[in-house]
């Protein structure tokens, strides 16, 4: 690293900007509501950013469906809602470098980035050790 290019103030400013962006993204993700529907719109489901069911709306006509069909429609709508929530989360992070981590998969519990992060930190520590 060229000592002349090292500017602690600039690095701190960049870090503060990244932290502010992360806080804005986290607030936006917390507000995500993914909607899905099935049975020609007779079944509607809403999930939060983690895919947790928040609301089910059934058109009165849906109550005339066979119980197996209604259950399958609820599952179909819930899967659509999860996909919609994931798409919204990916859109929120579309202009942010996530280091290749699928933030939507993390939010919905489909991926735990801990091992990946630890591996990257180990590489950074090794690079610092070799440089210093």
What would you say this structure looks like, in words?
By secondary structure, the protein is of the alpha+beta class. The chain has one domain: 2-Layer Sandwich (Ybab, Chain: A), CATH 3.30.1310.10. The protein has four helices and three strands. The chain has helices at residues 8-30, 67-92, 103-107, 114-131; strands spanning 34-38, 43-47, 53-58. The protein has a three-stranded antiparallel beta sheet. A hairpin with a 5-residue loop joins strand 2 (43-47) and strand 3. It is elongated, with a radius of gyration of 22 Å. The mean pLDDT is 86.
CATH homologous superfamily label:
Nucleoid-associated protein YbaB-like domain
Strand order, sheet with most strands: 1-2-3
Largest sheet: 3 strands, antiparallel
| CATH topology-level name | Ybab, Chain: A
Count of helices? 4
Taken together, the total number of domains comes to: 1
Mean pLDDT across every amino acid position: 86
Low-confidence stretches: none
> Beta-strand percentage?
5-15%
Rg to the nearest angstrom? 22 Å
The SSE order reads HEEEHHH
Q: Give the termini distance in whole angstroms.
A: 10 Å
**Structural class by SSE content:** alpha+beta
CATH-level-2 architecture: 2-Layer Sandwich
Shape designation? elongated
Number of strands: 3
Instruction: Specify the helix fraction band.
Output: 40-55%
Which CATH class?
Alpha Beta
Features:
single chain; 132 residues; alpha+beta; Ybab, Chain: A; 3-stranded antiparallel sheet; 4 helices
Give a brief rundown of this model.
By secondary structure, this protein is an alpha+beta fold.
């Amino acid at each position: 690293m060229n000592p002349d290019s090292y500017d602690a103030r600039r690095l701190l400013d960049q870090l503060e900007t990244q932290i502010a962006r992360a806080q804005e993204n986290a607030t936006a993700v917390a507000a995500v509501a993914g909607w899905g529907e099935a049975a020609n719109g007779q079944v509607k489901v809403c999930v939060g950013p983690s895919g947790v069911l928040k609301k089910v709306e059934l058109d009165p006509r849906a109550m005339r469906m066979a119980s197996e069909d209604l259950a399958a429609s609820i599952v179909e709508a819930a899967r659509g809602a999860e996909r919609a929530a994931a798409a919204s989360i990916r859109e929120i992070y579309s202009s942010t470098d996530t280091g290749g981590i699928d933030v939507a998969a993390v939010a919905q519990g489909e991926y735990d980035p801990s091992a990946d992060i630890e591996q990257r930190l180990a590489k950074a520590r090794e690079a610092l050790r070799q440089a210093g």
